[in-house]
Amino acid sequence: MSIMDQNGGSVIAMVGKDCVAIASDLRLGNEALAVSSNFQKIFPITDRIYLGLPGLATDVTTLKERFRFRVNMYTIKEEREIEPETFAHLVSSTLYEHRFGPYYVEPVMAGISKTPSGGFKPFIAATDLIGCLNYAKDFVVAGTASSKLYGVAEGLWEPDLEPEDLFETISQTIMNALDRDAYSGWGCIVHVLTKDKVITRTLKARMD
Amino acid sequence: MEHSFASPSGHPQPHQRHFNPYSENGGTILAIAGANFSVIAGDTRQSEGYSIQTRYAPKVFRLTDKAVLATNGFAADGNMFVKKVRQRLEWYRHAHSKDMPIRAIARLIQTMLYARRFFPYYVYNILGGIEEDGSGAVYSFDPVGSYEREACRAAGAAQSLVQPFLDNQIYFKNQTPAHGTSHPAHLPLDHVLELVIDSFTSATERHIEVGDGLEIYVVLAKGSTPQVLDRWQGVTEMTTTQDGERMFVIRRNLKRD
């Protein structure tokens, strides 16, 4: 069994109309044995960027701190908040620094970026464990339930969903994918990001 | 040149040759039971590794006027298995002057699969059709004959993509009905067909082993009207007897990349 599947866990991010959503499960396990039902793997980076880190739990914890450090350094030096596109490259290069001894995580990012004209644009991206970026117009998935997430998302997602509809779509996608994955589940959390607020909800999911 | 099995020391070494009798030919199958109908579908791509062997290799087969079998896994085993099941059904007809009922076919398939417990047919089977009481039925099997009657089942390469979608859309998993209402136990035929097509287009989009063509078999119970099928394109009727169950095939294209 792969190191990637040791602790289990899955993350998905979706684009909507002027909004994005990111969701994850809350399980931490040691192979088949469940250890915690409140293991957060999505972290706020700025008010408008959220980062999901499914994979090896020890690397999740390490990287979350590492990204906090690097984003703080960026903020101090640049005297401004980091943009989602820039952060995606920061994630990518941080992981590629360890090309031949990688961190076992597959980051998923969701954010709202500022356009030069002063508008806002939804942004999602994911990378593999060595930082190869994947920008998508619709949705990105990662973790032990990734194939299930792809199947359900491909069936449920549609373009230009309003925040409440996007919330329903991402919630149904992750819950039904999780229920078919033994290594993910034990509750889930959803964040919906719009230009001026973030809605966070913990879902009442199956706990088996 | 002489082929010897000499080791560096010059002494002959025993050498084992290996033959692998199995292969995986990709593709996906799916069946959904309605109140008085059954839908059994499969894509038509047959592949081995990254190569496409053919874009049209049927995986769904008519067994009787009211039973359809879909096979997925190792195509050679699947075709041979269908051949053997059909032979047993013909013997049954000669002995009893009627078609074998679907629940009996299901049990027959179990014994035939388990007979090969230690050299299995490398095939996942889904049997669909109409029960003697007129209800739509789906039976799903593992390669050694464990089986179960269900309302819906996906199997094959894209099972992990399709099954959770079906849990949500057929069984209404993770959906709470509005106050004072309940979810329907069975869906109407046109809705089921829409879900089958959506499942396969989704699977085609994200799985390299799924695509090319889609064959959907529809079995309607005695006395039910096939009017819903009028608005569907590419429908071929396969019914052989009057005033019995009616059978149709819908053939569609899927993406070929």
UniProtKB/TrEMBL annotation, chain A:
Protein name, as recorded: Proteasome subunit beta
InterPro entries named among the record's database cross-references: Ntn_hydrolases_N (IPR029055), Proteasome_beta_3 (IPR033811), Proteasome_bsu_CS (IPR016050), Proteasome_sua/b (IPR001353), Proteasome_suB-type (IPR023333)
Family statement: Belongs to the peptidase T1B family.
Cellular location(s): Cytoplasm; Nucleus
Highest rank taxon of the organism: Eukaryota
Stated role: Component of the proteasome, a multicatalytic proteinase complex which is characterized by its ability to cleave peptides with Arg, Phe, Tyr, Leu, and Glu adjacent to the leaving group at neutral or slightly basic pH. The proteasome has an ATP-dependent proteolytic activity.
Organism per entry: Mycena pura
GO-annotated biological processes: proteasome-mediated ubiquitin-dependent protein catabolic process
GO cellular component, one term: proteasome core complex, beta-subunit complex
Record key words, sorted: Cytoplasm, Nucleus, Proteasome
Residue spans crossing the bilayer: none
SUPFAM superfamilies: N-terminal nucleophile aminohydrolases (Ntn hydrolases) (SSF56235)
Complex formation: The 26S proteasome consists of a 20S proteasome core and two 19S regulatory subunits. The 20S proteasome core is composed of 28 subunits that are arranged in four stacked rings, resulting in a barrel-shaped structure. The two end rings are each formed by seven alpha subunits, and the two central rings are each formed by seven beta subunits. The catalytic chamber with the active sites is on the inside of the barrel.
Main location as per UniProt: cytoplasm
Automatic annotation (TrEMBL), chain B:
Compartments reported by the entry: Cytoplasm; Nucleus
Keyword Nucleus: yes
Alphabetical list of Pfam families matching this protein: Proteasome
Region described as Disordered: 1-21
InterPro entries listed in its UniProt record: Ntn_hydrolases_N, Proteasome_bsu_CS, Proteasome_sua/b, Proteasome_suB-type
Cellular component, GO annotation: cytoplasm; nucleus; proteasome core complex, beta-subunit complex
Keywords: Cytoplasm, Nucleus, Proteasome
Protein's GO biological process: proteolysis involved in protein catabolic process
Quaternary structure note: The 26S proteasome consists of a 20S proteasome core and two 19S regulatory subunits. The 20S proteasome core is composed of 28 subunits that are arranged in four stacked rings, resulting in a barrel-shaped structure. The two end rings are each formed by seven alpha subunits, and the two central rings are each formed by seven beta subunits. The catalytic chamber with the active sites is on the inside of the barrel.
Protein family: Belongs to the peptidase T1B family.
Function: Component of the proteasome, a multicatalytic proteinase complex which is characterized by its ability to cleave peptides with Arg, Phe, Tyr, Leu, and Glu adjacent to the leaving group at neutral or slightly basic pH. The proteasome has an ATP-dependent proteolytic activity.
Protein name per UniProt: Proteasome subunit beta
Source species: Mycena pura
